[in-house]
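User: I'm putting together a small comparison set for a docking exercise, and I want a reference complex before I start. The sequence is below, and the ligand is adenosine-5'-tetraphosphate. Could you produce the 3D structure with the ligand included, as structure tokens?
Assistant: Of course. I'll restate your input first, then give the structure tokens for the complex.
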Amino acid sequence: MQRVFSGIQPTGVPQLGNYLGAIRNWVTLQNDHDCVFCLVDMHALTVWQDPAALREQTLGQTACLLAAGIDPTRHILYNQSAVSAHARLGWLFNCVVRLGWLNRMTQFKDKAGKDRENHSAGLYVYPSLMAADIHAFHATRVPVGDDQRQHLELANDIGQKFNHDYGVDFFPVIEPLIPPGAARIMSLRDGTKKMSKSDPSAQSRIDMTDTPDEIALKIRRAKTDPEPLPSEEAGLAGRPEARNLVAIYAAMSDETSAQVLARFGGEGFGPFKKALAEVLVAKLGPVADETRRLLRDPGHLQAILCDGASRAEAICEPIVTEAERLVGFLR
Ligand code: AQP
């Protein structure tokens, strides 16, 4: 069976983009892959995190992932910092990656903006730690949203450069698994900006733990334009907010955007938004309820992460030790 690795930053409550771009895909992949799912707290630290909040968010996300259908008995769920192999391989990869390659990463440019000098070096080398996360497990398939496509290409470049530099065929080629319809969910306030859990505006996103009333309110307030919905996809051109809401509806109801527009085209946004909120509540409501139930027993969540970390270590420790041997570290 092929090995899947994927991670999520415990920087807040998972949002709808995380769910449609990654988590939903993770749940399905469990049926026919060996899966390693990681709460990447070391990545989270690349921007300031309140320590107590980071701990709480790590447990919160664990609960959310379990509630969404991640099975920690058949697969592995743990937090990155508990397994030192990530940091060790990350360092080797920092010495393999070229500055020019990192300079091209659009996520760093987006997150750092014009104020580059004041961001952590960790944020800059984030992609080489991400490459290490995946290669430490010799994982070949990585389910991510479209925003991570460039980082995965870099992860392949790093793995292949390592192989070339040391004359080995050690790190395999990684295949990104990007969901076709919901690859990039956009902010509810600005259809040109990615939905993000750390966006300062809570109105910009649907959190996986939102109540039905919160979901309905956020969708009602979601930015739109004055035109009715078009009947065909071509009519969504130049209307990023409308396109995003239609894409969300389609993804949540397992339909295509064309099918959604065939039903709602010609109508104003009122009835469509009402139907969209209903679809979201039907799918996310049970996950939110189960998350709240699981959070009542943080000890149980911590035990799951602890068990996951030791099973993760058993896989990646020999791989990373071998990489260290290949570069000439004395053991
Ligand atoms: N808007 C999105 N649409 C589709 N997929 C998305 N993902 C994130 N946002 C969207 C996917 O979710 C997985 C986990 O993401 P992450 O937490 O590791 O980092 P991120 O992409 O930076 O997510 P956020 O929510 O924007 O976090 P913050 O605000 O902390 O930076 C990834 O597979 C990602 O593709």
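Residues 7-9, 11, 15, 17-18, 20-22, 144-145, 147-148, 184-185, 194-198 surround adenosine-5'-tetraphosphate (CB under 6 Å). The beta strands are 3-8, 34-39, 76-79, 141-143, 175-177.
User: Thanks, that's exactly what I needed.
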